[in-house]
Amino acid sequence: MQKDAFEFLKALEETPSVSGFEQPAMAVIRERLKPLADSIETDVHGNLIVAVNAKGSPRVMLAGHCDQIGLMVRMVNDEGYIYFNAVGGVDPTVLPGTRVTVQTKKGPVPGVIGRKPVHLMKPEERGQAKIELQDLWIDIGAKNKADALKHVSIADPVTYRLGMDRLGSNCITSPGLDDKVGAFVVMEAARLAAGKKLNCALFAVATVQEEIGLRGARTSCYGIDPLVGIAVDVTHATDNPGADKRISGDVALGKGPVIERGPNINPIVGELLTETARKAKIPHQIDAAAGATGTDANAIQVSRSGVAAGLVSIPNRYMHTQVEVVSLTDLENAAKLLAETVARIDAKTSFIPR
């Protein structure tokens, strides 16, 4: 991956963007895409829409959600400990002992998530698999409630301690790869496509609030009114001891982006992505999505009178934890695949299933 692209990815991953609080990350994207876009707009919902060749036809939308799961300050007790709610699909079992950051208007406040030590647990509590959020708290080192509230406020978003690290020669690990890598891919695809002769109008969208109900994809797609909409999200990599390929399919890091096929996918879009990957010799994998995918593609497909939807997925290990892992070459190849696919779409391309 080129240095400028890697630095963009790193800046994006290390900028907080809990669902409903995505704008700091949107500023990173805006700065990167500013030199090549016809326009960059933020809609009332917070979606960032980058237009390239805006007067072309048909209108094609690429969507990667920029929000990440997180926590939210719910209350502070008299001793100054913070209790919290989950924003999105947080697994409570991975939280004890986690370093977190309360993202306040005054700036980041570091904290840790505490739990009763094993030495003080009753025998029946030890080894207990189920952990409830209300049994955990954030410790910011406050003396008492008044001291804590000098630094944090009710409803402040909380992230895992942000930071992107290299693993081996080709992988990265970070919280929030789901799905800031999707936003990264669609914006890099727009950058690559801007250097090609495009007939279609391209709208690359960093969507908001996917983790709490595919909300940004629904509103941005309605506003853009595309003929074609391709989402980029992560999918479960099954090349690790914790995965069952019989359930989740055979998906590996480093073997290319995953082209999803199934009822959530317009068959012509699915075939166009697959054929483009073959012709351009872009490594890729195929996955069976037997129903609604639970991604932005689901909302895009049923917008207005219907959109020809597609979905490209990035293999991801340990999803919704603090240590998600993806391959850099998978990200590069996903961006290339989308740029090459968009370049093949013109006013004569029909997406009506036959």
How would you describe what is shown here?
- The protein has 354 residues and is an alpha+beta fold.
- The chain folds into two domains: 3-68 and 176-343, Aminopeptidase (3-Layer(aba) Sandwich); 70-160, Peptidase M42, domain 2 (Elongation Factor Tu (Ef-tu), domain 3, Beta Barrel), CATH 2.40.30.
- The protein has helices at residues 3-13, 23-33, 145-148, 177-193, 215-224, 245-248, 267-279, 296-301, 328-343; strands at residues 39-42, 48-52, 59-65, 70-76, 82-87, 99-104, 107-114, 137-139, 157-160, 165-167, 171-174, 201-207, 228-236, 258-261, 285-288, 308-316, 324-327.
- The strands form three sheets. It has an eight-stranded mixed β-sheet, sandwiched between helices. A six-stranded antiparallel β-sheet has the order 5-4-9-6-7-8, with no helix packed on it.
- α7 packs across α9.
- The chain is globular and about 70 Å long.
Overview in brief:
With 354 residues, this protein is α+β, with helices and mostly antiparallel strands.
> What can be said about the biggest beta sheet?
8 strands, mixed
Estimated structural class: alpha+beta
Task: Report the β-strand fraction as a percent range.
Answer: 25-35%
End-to-end gap: 39 Å
How many structural domains in the coordinates?
Answer: 2
Name the poorly predicted regions.
none
Please give the count of helices.
9
Q: Report the C-alpha radius of gyration, rounded.
A: 21 Å
Side-by-side strand order of the widest sheet: 1-2-12-3-13-16-14-15
Count all strands and give the number.
Answer: 17
